[in-house]
Design a protein that fits this description.
Elements lengths: L8 H10 L5 H9 L6 E3 L10 E2 H9 L4 E5 L12 H9 L2 E5 L4 E12 L4 E11 L4 H8 L2 H22 L1 H4 L3 H10 L13 H20 L9 H25 L9
Parallel strand pairs: 1-6
Antiparallel strand pairs: 1-2, 3-4, 4-5, 5-6
Helix pairs in contact: 1-2, 6-9, 6-10, 8-9, 9-10
């Protein structure tokens, strides 16, 4: 599952934990995919200490009320996290924030690939630390689903224009099929909790497609004839990708107005 473009693990875990009564087994199948069983280090362990299965954390979370938020940061980009965990989140490109009546945690999945190019797998360790209440910072950074949908519409126009200027389908034989796959791809139903708000599904699907288009458009300079043009296009694509990442985060964040 994780070998092809899919939702980040933090987004999937946030979506399932935010569901009213998710099936733990279905949650773990969706989040872990083809990975080895995930483990969690901390917040009470130290370097070299034993790790607990992700299933144990999931069981604890599902025992009571909870709020979650997914983050998809990049290095140098402002994010509602501070400290060493923020750097790890930027390096890994994702993080999960969790709030229960007793504590607030930040969890960052560290992914290690093993095996050959043809046959490989992933070891995933979620590094967890206690953090201050993160709700206000997330509300100020991520925005609403309505904001996300508007930004996605604008981003799709920009990404389409970038592909048109590149004319990738003409000079890359594989590009046409990849464009169609990015445009028409849908999320497998088993990835998502039952009865997930259709608006959230729509935002997640659009954001995933947009990120795939951005990756395709950014693979080559194509029609850019000088460094200035290449830099301008790269800057535009980064902004489009940022909108897509924020949209995914908005769709995977709880209603933070609930005091628990």
């Amino acid at each position: 599952m994780h070998g092809s473009p899919s939702l980040p693990r933090s987004v999937l875990l946030a979506l399932w934990l935010d569901a009213p009564a998710p099936d733990p087994a279905a949650l773990l199948r969706a989040v872990q995919g083809d990975d080895e069983p995930h483990t969690v280090r901390g917040p009470d362990t130290h370097e070299g200490a034993a790790q607990a299965p992700l299933a144990e954390l999931v069981t604890q979370c599902l025992a009571g009320p909870r709020q979650v938020a997914a983050l998809l940061p990049t290095p140098g980009e402002p994010a509602p996290m501070t400290g060493p965990q923020a750097g790890l989140a930027a390096d890994q490109g994702e993080a999960l924030l969790l709030r229960t009546p007793g504590r607030c945690l930040a969890l960052v999945p560290e992914v290690v690939r093993f095996g050959s190019e043809r046959e490989h797998g992933h070891l995933v360790t979620w590094h967890a630390v206690e953090v201050p209440d993160w709700r206000a910072a997330v509300l100020g950074t991520v925005g609403t689903l309505q904001d996300a949908e508007r930004a996605l519409r604008e981003g799709l126009v920009e990404a389409t224009e970038a592909l048109t200027r590149l004319d990738v389908a003409r000079w890359r034989p594989d590009a046409a099929d990849r464009i169609v796959a990015a445009r028409d791809g849908a999320l497998p139903p088993a990835l998502l909790p039952d009865d997930l708000d259709p608006r959230r599904v729509r935002v997640l699907t659009s954001a995933l497609r947009l990120r795939a288009i951005v990756r395709l458009a950014g693979e080559d300079d194509g029609a850019a004839v000088n460094l200035w043009q290449a830099d301008q296009r790269s800057t535009a694509l980064r902004e489009v990708d940022r909108s897509a990442r924020r949209a995914m985060a908005a769709a995977a964040t709880s209603d933070l107005r609930d005091p628990l």
